[in-house]
Design a protein that fits this description.
This protein is mostly helical. It has 14 helices and no strands.
Length: about 425
């Protein structure tokens, strides 16, 4: 049984992780080209706009993972028609809310930039990035939703390849728009969104060609009017929303604290930390999203042994990935950071930050698995509690508290304390159910 579970785990997790890694490369590649082609202030401006982009992604992931969780459980019970209804409701909700974010970002970019802490020097660049990213945000949100749906429908490889095509085009277009065409931060935003458009097109082929059980069926849109199904999707997806908000809230809080202590160069250096954090969280999330359908289906058909085997495999995999990333950043951080920008002060600040901040990756990786496990096995209240602790309560508290008490030397330690206490709470919740 364990060997069979391991093979299934690998089949789902590798494509999911690769797809999520590629998705995070959109953000990282933007950072590299902006840092090298536009400068440190532009790097800081993009980082200040990330709370908007990440919040938009978090809302989308709430509907994505909520729909995916309901779909997986219904597949496990053999309810194919019900699974498609959950898929279509999620599809409509993602489209509707991405349109709202589009209007918000296009109409009020300067107001948002100020709210995220942009100084007068960084205001214009931050607002420009927000506006251009928001213009195409429907494809950004839809690509994540369709990728999860395709995985749930038994085609994880297509999800991976669709994201890979989008990321490859993004790299080329970033170079084209920022260097030859000199479009600055707006070019970086447009390049990312064109890549998302290509990903969406490829993913839609799965449904147009009817490669699985899920299909885009207009008559199933009527189920959006069913409050109970919408509520179920939002309820199942809320823990994922709160989990995804962790990075948005963390970036926002650290931008404020770092600007106060280290100024604009500190924010530029933290931007590099943020890009590498995004890449790391992408790997952890990829593993969790890959195992999510396996949790859901095992729970749906009452296979407790497989459910626990998949949980152990998820924990071991994420712990190994997190430790490997931390060791790479610890020993080779000074060689990696100049890829974004070669300023000596920026390199020094970012390297110091990574050596401390990176410890939190280990606990974050484990907390993400706990959250998705609770979510997929209908332990929604536990999933919400773990997510809220690490996304709104503990990280916000300690990011501000530790530097206020101990000064600059404790600047990067708050997130470690927050993730560690969340991990202890997650272990307690898991044992309480067992």
């Amino acid at each position: 049984m364990m060997r069979k579970n391991r093979k299934t785990f690998i089949r789902y997790v590798i494509p999911s992780t690769a797809a999520m890694l590629v998705t995070m490369l959109y953000v990282v590649v933007d950072g590299i080209f902006v840092g090298q082609g536009v400068g440190t202030n532009a790097l800081a401006a993009v980082n200040l706009s990330l709370p908007f982009v990440l919040t938009m992604g978090a809302v989308s992931m709430m509907f994505t993972m909520g729909s995916a969780a309901v779909t997986a459980v219904r597949f496990g019970r053999g309810e194919k028609a019900g699974a498609n209804q959950a898929f279509m409701v999620g599809f409509v909700l993602v489209l509707f809310f991405s349109l709202l974010f589009c209007l918000l970002g296009v109409l009020f970019p300067s107001h948002l930039a100020k709210a995220f802490g942009a100084s007068p020097m960084l205001l214009e660049g931050t607002a420009v990035y927000i506006r251009f990213y928001a213009m195409f945000d429907i494809f950004f949100c839809l690509s994540m939703f369709l990728a999860a749906a395709v995985r749930n429908d038994g085609n994880p490889a297509l999800s991976m390849w669709a994201m890979l095509v989008g990321a490859t085009s993004n790299i080329f277009l970033d170079w084209l728009f920022i260097f030859p065409l000199q479009m600055g931060v707006s070019g970086a935003a447009i390049a990312s969104e064109i890549g998302q458009v290509l990903s969406c097109i490829l993913l839609l082929f799965h449904f147009v060609l009817k490669k699985g059980n899920l299909c885009i069926r207009l008559k199933d849109m009527k189920y959006v009017k069913e409050i109970s199904l919408c509520r179920k999707i939002v309820l199942r997806g809320t823990p994922e929303f709160v989990t995804q908000m962790n990075q948005s809230v963390t970036v926002f809080c650290y931008n404020l604290v770092v600007f106060r202590i280290l100024g604009e160069m500190g924010v530029s250096a933290f931007a590099v930390v943020t890009y590498l954090l995004s890449l790391s969280v992408g790997l952890f999330t990829g593993v969790s999203q890959g195992v999510q359908p396996l949790f859901g289906r095992s729970f749906g058909n009452g296979d407790k042994k497989s459910e626990q085997n998949y949980f152990k495999l998820g924990i071991i995999t994420n712990a190994g990935v997190a430790l490997s990333i931390y060791l790479i950043l610890f020993f080779f951080g000074k060689q990696i950071i100049p890829v974004f920008n070669g300023d000596s002060r920026l390199i020094s600040i970012a390297d110091t930050a990574l050596k401390v901040y990176g410890i939190s990756f280990i606990f974050a990786a484990l907390n993400i698995i706990f959250t998705i496990y609770f979510l997929s096995t209908k332990q929604t209240s536990r999933a919400v509690l773990v997510s809220v602790l690490r996304s709104f309560l503990l990280n916000t508290l300690f990011i501000f508290l530790l530097p206020a008490i101990f000064g600059e030397k404790a600047l990067w330690g708050g997130i470690i304390v927050a993730e560690f206490f969340t991990f202890l709470a997650a272990i307690y919740l898991k044992r309480e159910r067992a």
